[in-house]
Amino acid sequence: MSEPTARPRPVYVVCAEAPPDVVGGLGRYAERMMAAMRQLGTPVEVFGATARHGAPRTERIGDVTLHRVRTPGGDRAGGGTRTPAALLRVARVIGVLVFNVRVAARILRAGAGPSGSVVAVHDWMGCVAGILCRVLARTPVVFHVHTRELNAAPSRRRSAVASGIAALETAQARMARLIVVPSAGMRDELAASGWPADRLRVIPHGFEDPELSRLAALTGDERDRLREAVRRRYLPGGGGRLVVFAGRLSPHKGVRTLVRAAPLIAGDRDDVRIVLVGAQAPRTGENAEVARLIDETGVGRHVVAGYRFLSSAEVFAHFLAADVCAFPSTYEPFGLVAIEAMALARPVVVGPGYSPEVVGDGAIRCERDSPEELAGALLRCLDDPPAASRLGGRGAAHVRERYTWARTAELTLAAYAELAR
Known about the structure:
It is built from 15 helices and 14 strands. The chain is α/β, with parallel strands linked by helices. The protein has 2 domains: 11-206 and 404-420, Glycogen Phosphorylase B (Rossmann fold, 3-Layer(aba) Sandwich), CATH 3.40.50.2000; 210-402, Rossmann fold (3-Layer(aba) Sandwich), CATH 3.40.50.2000. The strands form 2 sheets. The chain has an 8-stranded mixed β-sheet, sandwiched between helices. Helix 2 runs parallel beside helix 3, helix 7 (220-234) packs across helix 10 and helix 8 packs parallel to helix 9 (286-297). It is globular and about 65 Å long.
């Protein structure tokens, strides 16, 4: 019998968005990975930013210890404010820098060095800590890149903040011993932009969530009752056809394309409702922009936007209630929300931003950011329920064969171990 693979002791993880400040995909990733790593025998020290006063500063979860680092500007609730968006972005960047310096100081005081320990940084929000640990203590650094959405539209003029973030990411990529990405599409994109191809490693995310697993195991009658309860919120008597989108209302998520597709989807069908589950990115005016577009296109009767984030349980219940789920992103390095809907055997339509291997043949993938193409794909599902059901079955099989948080955690720790030898 071969000896078990040696693992670094300890691992220091810098992930600015961590529980309880979970807003986007990065926070959900951190939440799931901490649970998956809790009993794998490797001490993992996670440092997350928070502006909250109530949460414990340190929390132990098996082998994982979460340190919540108080950070100015760390409140990502977003909310009403009259401060200009540009100043808010700058304030957030300053807060992230303060967080990084504090975390780097704590890691260096803990004795991180060139052997036996690894620093794992997530997205640009951990780069400064990673660079400091690499330069000051020669600690091996793994750079996890989940998204580069601020630089996803090369035709758009970059702000000074976006350009600075891009430079920071590039510097971290050059110093990192390993760069971990969630999909082959993102690997190829980064390699094409000049990042070191020999250090890019694809480790897909998982999909399991306790509530998702509970809903997936419901009996037919229980599932029907839950579907009916959600559908009655949007459809008179629960009858009709329901399209569900979930995510931030940011432009690259494709929600504007979905609103523009609504007249083509609804047409003269009075029984169609398109529900937008989600809200704006913090400190933006995206809620108002989407509301204005709904008004301008005259689809208010068919498009329902709540402009708020729901709990995971509520989001999954909406997926179950939907006749088809739509995630028309123009940029999506992995797209956990679509994977979760597929895991529930729901028919799913995704945008051109999804890497083809992520969804395989388990979803309809639009080739272009086009309201017409999106409407056509959604109508294929709405107008042919048996075909939509078969698509949902293929999606569930695809997800369950390829993705699991346990496998993601094992592969991630094995990658760290390579650097600690």
